[in-house]
Amino acid sequence: MEQNIWIQDGNTFMKGSATTKAHPEGLPKGIYEVRESMTGYYLNKLGDSFVFNYKLYGINNEFIDHFIKTYNNTTGNLGVLFNGIKGTGKTVTAEELCNRMGLPVIIVKSCGEVNNMLKFLATQINFDCIFFFDEYEKEFRESSSVLSFMDGVHNSQYRKIFLLTTNELDINTNLLGRPSRIRYVRSFGNLPEETTLELLNDILIDKDAVEPVLDLIRQMQIITVDLVKALAQEVNIHGKDKIDMIRKNFNLEFSDFTYFVESIELRAGLLKNCPHIDEQLFNKIIESREILCRAAGKPIKEYSDKEWEAKRLLDGGVSIRTDTIISNKEIKYLKIGEVFDDRTIFYIDPKKHYVVTSLCGFTIYIIKSGYTSSASGKLNQIY
């Protein structure tokens, strides 16, 4: 009996008729893309799997394991969307997921008339497979045909995985909030610091440059594998002593950090009565300041013992003002001995959000709020 099967000619696979029995598994495992000829659509095999001729960074194996476990414990189709800017690892994670699933992968790109192409995929792909829409929003953003395509193959006896990657989550809203179509939406942002550190240790020739380059990367608006590699290469060429010049001239956007602070300058009269200038003293001064702020407007004669103690400590011993400080580092990365407000950092407590500097005396900066500011002038609140 004549059957409609897949016929192979080199790397080309087309539907045709033959008297031989069709393989029940459909196409062999591999990576295919849809193409169009004068006679219709066909699949062109690109390889047996996705091949990486480089070390992979930032692969989210935990999520891949989660996805595979879901697939193995459910029936029907399954959808997943990876979203993030280029270079954050979403495509290589998608490709690694494909390799580990062990199913034929069909890369879906706009080819000919979209509706006809999707009809071909919906009616002719008679086997379990992965439909891989890379950079989905570029080719299918305005199309509702993919929704119909997903729904049209929903009742098929063959399982389909819909794998979408996007650089921007600007897609048909009917794909979001619908787990029956897209079960998982995974966002890829800036590289985690441990991945960045791994990259730098692999690439930088001068290992003493790792820490200063990492400090520079922390100031970057966008952190991707490609950008970290480019920055590391620049330092390999020019050396870590040129990092300030690189920051000024390299074609990347770096953040400055703007802090709105309350600064408490400790006067000599207070300091001479303190046997130790240390964390305990700084915390006591900050606590006293908070106590007096809460007591504002309260008659002095009604002060509690704690409020009187706070007043005695601060009266005449400190000068308090509000200020704006700009730094090239986020507070959690500042270190003792570095500069803040053109003064040397004597002590820092990132958890309590204060910095102490020394310059002919000591000043406590209590961080009230903090923002990143880019070259474009955009502010993002971080505290």
Draw up the topology in text.
Elements: E1 3-9, E2 12-18, E3 31-37, E4 40-47, H1 61-72, E5 78-84, H2 90-101, E6 105-107, H3 114-124, E7 129-133, H4 136-140, H5 145-152, E8 160-166, E9 184-188, H6 193-203, H7 210-217, H8 225-238, H9 243-249, E10 256-266, H10 268-271, H11 279-294, H12 305-314, E11 318-327, E12 339-340, E13 343-349, E14 354-358, E15 362-373, E16 379-381
Helix pairs in contact: 3-5, 6-8, 11-12
Radius of gyration: 30 Å
CATH class of the largest domain: Alpha Beta
CATH T-level topology of the largest domain? Rossmann fold
Strand order of the largest sheet: 1-2-4-3-6-7-8-5-9
What is the total domain count? 3
Total number of β-strand segments?
16
Alpha-beta classification: alpha/beta
The end-to-end distance, rounded to whole angstroms, is 73 Å
Largest sheet properties: 9 strands, mixed
Strand content: 25-35%
Gross morphology is: elongated
Regions with little confidence, pLDDT below 50 for 5+ residues = 19-24
What is the string of helix and strand elements? Answer: EEEEHEHEHEHHEEHHHHEHHHEEEEEE
Counting H and I runs of at least 4 residues, what is the number of helices? Answer: 12
The portion of residues assigned to helices is 25-40%
Describe the protein's architecture and organization:
The strands form 2 sheets. A 9-stranded mixed sheet has the order 1-2-4-3-6-7-8-5-9, sandwiched between helices. Strands 10, 11, 12, 13, 14, 15 and 16 form a 7-stranded antiparallel sheet that branches. It folds into 3 domains: 3-188, Rossmann fold (3-Layer(aba) Sandwich), CATH 3.40.50.300; 193-254; 257-381. β13 and β14 form a beta hairpin. α6 packs parallel to α8 (225-238) and α11 packs across α12 (305-314). The chain is 31% helix and 28% strand. It is built from 12 helices and 16 strands. It is an alpha/beta fold and 383 residues long.
